[in-house]
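Table S5 (text form). Sequence records supplied for joint modeling of the two-component complex.
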Amino acid sequence: MTCRDVREDLPDLIRGHLSAELAGNVRAHLVGCPACSEALRSEEQFRALVQGYAPRFTAPPALRARIQVALRDAGRPPRMVWRARVRRHPWLTGVLVGAMAAVAVVWVGGAWLARDPVARLVSAAVDEHVEYVRETMHRPVPDAEELLRRVQSEAGFPLGPVFRGDAQAPLILATVTEVRGTRAVALVYRNGPERYTTLLLMPGADALIPAEDRLAIENFKPHHRVASSKHVLYWKQSDVAYLLVSDLDQSDLGAMFLKVRKPA
Amino acid sequence: MVEPQSDLPAAALNHLDGLYNLARWLVRDPAEAEDLVQEAYLHALRGAHQFQPGTNLRAWLFQILRNVFYTQYKRRKRDPVATDPEILDGIGADVYPDGDAARASGSADGTLRADLAAALERLPEEYRSVVLLADIEDFTMGEVAAIMKCPVGTVKSRLFRARAMLQEFLRDYLRDTPARPRGDAQDDPRFYEDRKPNP
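The corresponding structure-token record, covering 463 residues in total, follows.
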């Protein structure tokens, strides 16, 4: 074996991944080759260093639980009994097809929502937004500091820094609410005539932000959807999940997002 | 590594920690890493019929994770760590799960861990992944090549270059290592280039 061959095989040699014969040949070469022996020593030393000292991250229990559920559902064996019965009684096919067609519409919608829990959340957030706009559109601008003080004391979870509103987007409502059974804080900003933005803050340690459909806004990439003609942004900061529902055009959405993402 | 297809979901969960560890090194932000791992598992479930029982499930899952990373993150040039101070803070906290005690105490182990973590962070992603897959996950060079979709020779070359860079970053810890002979052709990373991939 040449030094070149031996050096190529060193990484697999120290991991025990070489065949016995090849490992024997490499070791035979090493006995008579100080340079390759030194290369082996260096390789081993470095591997030990990385194995011993490189930080290793362990999957959080919440992630493990979520994936466990997904895998368990996927691992369920399909029910074969009905197939056998249909084979024995062909007339059942017609009945089954009719029934399945009727059920399909309901099932597909339900399955879609089950596979996409964010869709439910977004739908609920848009409903909240529409309701708040209806309630507050003629309301004068209140004292933002007083509103926030009150809502922070009632929230029941740490809100972190929040956007207090400004001349272009004054805060007109801050209230504790529930979004799909989760306690949340709703902040409503008026961006102009008939243009409002609702920001919902929820405890979000377990919230999963979908990896797809992200909107690049400066350095940030919140999840983005359009629902009922409203733009919806969904992201996480620390342990708080944020849902922003806005009547703004996409061109103005970024500026509003930045105001709430980086409050002064 | 034989895993009948019906046992695939249960077997797949055994590799969660390794996948999450690689995901953390790829995207750095804990929440993004969770998203990435979850997405990888969903891809694996959708493509379960493509998995051939008897082949290497672990390598297959890691390959999917990297594919998802490249298609959904890298392509969009996500690089949260360089820009988002919140994420930067998060990295420090997670690299030292026991707090800053080790660093503050100045213990040799704590300092080495910190410096090694920083050195790994400085490596290009392809180099860092090779080191993590080969040294932490203990994949063979052939498996790393399959996961990274590149020839084995390229993996060896990257591993060599990664080691050289880490040795440079960590030279204080490795100063006892005798200097390798200069002018040795095999010390040139090109030594491993242009080699035909292993069959």
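Note: The beta strands of chain A are 171-179, 182-192, 195-203, 223-227, 230-237, 240-246.
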